[in-house]
Write a structure and sequence with these properties.
The structure is a single chain. The protein is an alpha+beta fold and about 375 residues long. It has helices at about 5-10, 15-20, 40-50, 70-75, 125-135, 160-165, 210-220, 230-240, 275-280; strands at about 25-30, 30-35, 50-55, 60-65, 90-95, 100-110, 115-120, 140-145, 150-155, 180-185, 185-190, 200-205, 225, 285-295, 305, 310-320, 330-335, 345-350, 350-360. The protein has a 6-stranded mixed beta sheet with strand order 10-11-12-9-3-13, sandwiched between helices. A 6-stranded antiparallel beta barrel has the order 14-17-16-15-18-19. The longest helix is centred in the middle third of the chain and has 14 residues, at about 210-220. The chain starts with a helix and ends in an 11-residue tail after the last strand. The model is unreliable at about 1-5 (pLDDT under 50).
Length: about 375
């Protein structure tokens, strides 16, 4: 890696650990991040079968508090946090006025008029500026915690047991999309149960020294594998979860991405509502769909999707050879006329054209704890 790349990208508090472990490091979202250690396939299978640990300290965190915090969050966020119980987590989006996606994010209800937002690494500067720009007229305090907190994700069917037995953190009482805050040896941490892999999983947020110590304890235990962002992408892809910049963007609305259930149009006033309401009522001209390619060829982001006559009807957003299902699969944003399951299309991969069929986006059954 060149010195120029090193100087342009940030490093997480665990960077030295990744280098020492021999990880392949590459720029992602403005950070130098581990892409793989042992290998993407091995790490992917570790999460599906046992336990894997990810450094996700590149993610951004913003806390919103104050008298108008609930009202403000409901203004900028598509899901409905009104009256939510403390400890509840919501997934949703922030939209621009045209309904395009500024970012997709998680919102944690910490208390009355106190919310913790987790945003995508590549959007941190944009998101924080956008949030602050929307706050005019609201009595809120916006705290940017991106450089203060680190985060690890412990994922897989053995995650709960590993966290309780290795780290000594009680977590079995947490249900899906809930969290708690506690002291660990006098240090404040937040632990949640969401996941981005399709498996049961937890996230732990804390100041950098705490996160480093927890990572070291997990690695020394021998009960989990370090995992890079390579398998994080293959895991989320297999269960149909979107990645910002692929299935969502400033030009792609949640309705087009098939995420309407996270946009509560019965709320009276949130940014982008009019566009989303119109799309829900009238339909959209394009949709994100799943594709099975009838060959071992892999379709990458941006490759063309064609109809039977060879006309371009859309493009691939993400494509892989599914590790858990051993099929060539993709998600693609295509003309809605071709979005019905079972429709025969084709994908242009370099100079060749391969037949494909529209299928459900969830290629692998999720195993979350309900």
């Amino acid at each position: 890696m060149s010195e120029n790349i090193k100087s342009e990208n940030k490093r997480t508090c665990l960077y030295d650990r990744h280098v020492k472990a021999g990880a392949l490091i590459s720029p992602f979202g403005g950070f130098e991040m581990p892409i793989q250690y042992e290998g993407i396939t091995e790490e992917h299978q570790a999460v599906r079968s046992a336990c894997g640990v990810f450094d996700v300290s590149h993610m951004g965190e913003v806390n919103i508090s104050g008298k108008d915090a609930e009202k403000f969050v409901n203004r900028i966020f598509t899901n409905d946090v009104a009256g939510a119980p403390e400890g509840k987590i919501f997934y949703g989006m922030m939209l621009n006025e045209k309904g395009g996606t500024v970012d997709d994010l998680l919102v944690y209800k910490r208390g009355d008029n106190n919310f913790f937002l987790v945003i995508n690494a590549g959007n941190i500067d944009k998101d924080v500026a956008w949030i602050r720009n929307q706050a005019t007229g609201f009595d809120v305090e916006i705290d940017d915690l991106c450089d203060v907190l680190g985060e690890i994700a412990i994922q897989g069917p053995e995650a709960e047991q590993v966290i309780e037995e290795v780290l000594g953190i009680g977590c079995k009482e947490l249900t899906f999309y809930t969290f708690k805050e506690c002291l660990l040896d006098g240090n404040h941490i937040l632990i949640s149960r969401t996941g981005y892999t399709g498996e049961d999983g937890f996230e732990i947020y804390g100041e950098h020294p705490v996160i480093v110590r927890l990572w070291d304890e997990l690695m020394e235990s021998g009960r989990c594998k370090p995992c890079g962002l390579g398998c994080r992408d293959t895991l989320r892809f297999e269960v149909g979860l979107p990645l910002y910049g692929d299935e969502l963007s400033e030009e792609i609305t949640p309705v087009e991405a098939g995420l309407s259930m996270f946009v509560k149009t019965d709320k009276p006033d949130f940014i982008g509502r009019e566009t989303i309401l119109r799309q829900k009522e009238q339909g959209v001209s394009r949709k994100v769909v799943g594709l099975e390619i009838h060959d071992r060829a892999i379709a990458r982001h941006g490759y063309e999707v064609l109809d039977k006559n060879g006309e371009t009807i859309g493009a691939i957003t993400t494509g892989y050879r599914g590790i858990s299902v051993d099929k060539s699969l993709a998600m693609a944003l295509i003309d809605s006329k071709y979005a019905e399951k079972g429709t025969e299309v084709a994908v242009k991969i370099r100079k060749k054209v391969f037949p494909a069929t529209v299928i459900a986006k969830k290629f692998y059954k999720k195993s979350y704890k309900k």
